[in-house]
Amino acid sequence: MADQVQPVPASSQSSDDASFTENPGKGRGSFPKRGEPVITGINRVGLWSLYIKEVRRFLKVQTQTIWAPAVTTLLFLVIFTVALGREGREILGVNFATFVAPGLIVMGMMQNAFANSSFSLLSGKIQGTIIDLLMPPLSTGELMTGIVTAAVTRAIAVGAAVALAMAFYPGVDLSLAHPWAVAWFGLMGAIMLALMGLLASIWAEKFDHNAAVTNFVIAPLSLLSGTFYVIDNLAPTFQIISRFNPFFYVISGFRFGFLGQSDIGDTNSALVQSALGLGLFNLVFAFLVYRILASGWKIRS
Asked: Each residue of 91-119: pLDDT tens digit?
């Protein structure tokens, strides 16, 4: 005789449904209430995945993203030392090649930090893949941190490649006088430009917009910040203008780490004030970029 299927009492069905809806977390196979976060605190797995994705993106084309900037920066050193340094010209008590090398290193770091972070969101908006960054369970702070830290990683890689190339260039001495200044000002410069790049990628709608920021904002601020000269040679008005350029403090502070002297001053106290000022500037700037990113401006519309 065939088995007969016994109907489940309605009371039993309602009690089972209640275990899924009214008492989440209790019973077998229960789910949290709608809108209740499953991941609390920092999503370390998601943050690490985003960081690795961004790092692998520029490492896949490292000839273009790391070694090409190193060669370009080295060419700056060759051209300027040949043009200005043949007669043993000295600045801040060292030959011109040794003077200009630290500025070129940190300038390459900053420009590539900007290039890396400015590509992340912009490429997604143009290719229609930005949903891959917005849909994962990442908070605004985690998304911002992953992109910025990847850009800083590229900046450090470029700086190391440039320094390695310059170490073998005749007449360049890269001895460290104050390692803390090299580490701090290099890091602050990379973070500052990574934040600028992220802001540019939020605003830009096509690659031409991004190129405009690079050519008309980043390049002038980098080249007119004391990379190839000391600001004491400028007219008083332009000296004042230079001191409002945050790139000036990054390059001068980074140079202080190698030479023990800079345009800012020759004492640790003067450099500490500049270091704290850059740190405060980056904190305020990071908060501004965070608020814009969290608003969804030009991203979710």
From this structure: 888 888 899 999 999 999 999 999 999 99
Angle, alpha carbons 202-203-208 (nearest 5°): 110
Q: Which residues in the chain land under pLDDT 70?
A: 1-30, 35-37, 39, 84-88, 266-267, 301
24, 30 Cβ separation under 8 angstroms: yes
In single-letter form, the type of residue at position 37 comes to P
Q: Which residues, 6+ apart, have CB-to-CB distance to 175 below 8 Å? A: 258
Predicted structure pTM score: 0.85
| DSSP-H helix ranges across 2-139 | 10-21, 44-59, 62, 68-84, 96-127, 131-134
Q: What is the structure's pLDDT at 1?
A: 44
Exposed/middle/buried for residue 86 (C-beta within 10 Å: 0-12, 13-18, 19+): exposed
CA distance 283 to 275: 13
Sequence letter at residue 122: L
Single out the residue of 244, 242, 241 nearest to residue 230, CA to CA. Answer: 242
Are 155 and 117 a contacting pair, CB within 8 Å?
no
Q: What percent of the chain has pLDDT over 90?
A: 53
User: How many alpha carbons fall within 13 Å on the CB side of residue 129?
Assistant: 6
User: How many CA atoms within 13 Å lie on the side-chain side of 235?
Assistant: 2
Quote the strand ranges of the chain, DSSP E.
90-91, 94-95
* Cα→Cα distances 160→5, 51, 167, 219, 260, Å: 74, 20, 10, 21, 20
Segment holding 189, helix H or strand E: helix 179-203
pLDDT of residue 270: 79
Give the C-alpha separation, 230 to 234, whole Å.
8
Question: Cβ of 221: how many Cβ atoms within 10 Å?
Answer: 16
CB of 179 closer than 8 Å to CB of 248:
no
